[in-house]
Amino acid sequence: MRDWIARGVRAVYERVLRREISGVPTHVAIIQDGNRRYAREQGAEAKRGHEAGAETTEQVLEWCADLGIEELTIYAFSTENFDRPAAEREHLFDLLTEKLYEFADSDRIHEEGVRIRALGQTHRVPERVQDAIAYARQQTAAYDNLTLNVAIAYGGRAALLDVAQDVADGVATGDLEPEDVDVEAIESRLYDGELRDVDLIVRTGGDERTSNFLPWHANGNEAAAFFCTPYWPEFSKVDFLRAIRTYEAREASWRQTRTQRALALVRALGEGRGRRVLDRLGESLPDGTEPIEEAESSAD
Ligand code: FPP
Ligand code: MG
To answer: Region Disordered: what ranges (predicted)?
Structure first.
C-alpha cells in the first residue's frame, strides 16, 4: 500500500518537474557512482551493484531519447579502475562487453537512431571488449539522433596529454604551425570524431567531485554540475529531471556571465584584437551586442 502511494506521488512529481522544464541540455555526462555501496547495502556482491547500475544506464538512455537530448556520455571504466581487484575488473569487462552487444542489437536503439561510440584508451582493455566496441560502433554508425559515448579506460588528464603530444609532434614535423594551435586544432585531436560541449555533468553516490571527467568539454565549457546522494542503481527519473532543472537555472546566469566576460575582453584589448582573441578561444559576442564604444560610454 505504502509503495503504491509512493509510486503515485513520484509520478505526480515527475509530471510537475517535466512541466517546469522548458529546454534540455544538448550533452549530458554522467559519473555513475555508488554501485558497490548499493550492492553492499543489499548484502550482495559488488558485481550485482554494477549489473543493477547497467539497468539504470539503459533507462537513462531512454529518458534522454524521450527528452530530445542529443548526446550522453557515461563514465563506465576509468583509468583508475585498472587498479581494482582482478575479479571485479574482469566482471566489469564482461558486463561492458555484454551490454555493448545487447545495445548494438536492440530494436529500441535502432528505432531511436542511437549512435554508440567509445572514448578512452580502449587499446588497454581486453580484446573481447574492443570487439564489442567495434561491433556497436559499426552497427550504429549511420545514426545521429542521439549519441551514446561510453567512456572506457578513460582519464581526462591522459586524454589531454595525448593531444599535447600530438600537437608537439605536428609542430616538430612542420605539419602544424604554432599559430594554428587553436580550439579546433585541439578538439580535432582529442577524440575519434566530434564531441559536443558538455552542458550538464551528473554524479550520483554522494561525492561532489567531477573526477577528471571530460576536462576540455565539461570544465572548459563550465558545465552545470548536479551531485546527488542516490547510488547509481537507485537514480530515478525525478533525480534526472532535477538535474536538468539545475542546468536550466545555471544556463540563464551563465549566458549573462559569458557576455560580460567577452565584452570586458574586447574593451580591454580593443575591438579588432579582442574579437580575434575571442575567435581563437571559440567564444563570441552574442548577436545584437551593442557596438563597444556605445557600451563603454553607456557604462560611464
Ligand atoms: C562506479 O561505481 C562505476 C563503475 C566503476 C562502473 C559503472 C559501469 C556500469 C554501470 C556499466 C554500464 C555500462 C553500459 C555500457 C550499460 P563504483 O564501482 O565505484 O561503486 P562505489 O562508488 O559504491 O564503490
Ligand atoms: Mg565509486
So the answer is: 280-300
Q: Is residue 45 located within the same domain as residue 192?
A: yes
List, in sequence order, every residue forming a beta bridge with 224; answer none if it has no partner: 200
The alpha-helical segments, DSSP class H, found in the chain are 2-20, 35-41, 46-67, 86-104, 107-112, 127-140, 156-173, 183-190, 237-269, 271-280, 292-299
- Residue 136 CA to ligand 2 center (angstroms) comes to 26
CA-proximal residue: ligand 1, atom 3 (nearest) = 33
Q: Which domain holds residue 285?
A: 257-299
Neighbours of 158 (CB within 10 A): 15
The answer to whether the CB of 220 falls within 8 A of the CB of 48 is no
| Segment 237-294, tens digit of pLDDT | 999 999 999 999 888 777 777 778 788 888 888 888 888 877 877 777 777 776 555 4
User: Is residue 76 within 6 Å of ligand 1 at its C-beta?
Assistant: yes
Amino acid identity, residue 240? F
Q: Which atom of ligand 1 is least distant from the CA of 96? A: 15
Same domain, 282 and 138: no
Task: Examine the residue annotation and report whether 219 is marked as an active-site residue of this protein.
Answer: no
Polymer length in residues for the chain: 300
- C-beta 81 within 6 A of ligand 1: yes
Query: Is 81 marked active-site?
Result: yes
Beta bridge partners of 78: 154
Whether 82 is covered by a domain: the verdict is yes
For 201, the grid coordinates are: 555533468
Ligand 1 site, residue 99, Cβ cutoff 6 A? yes
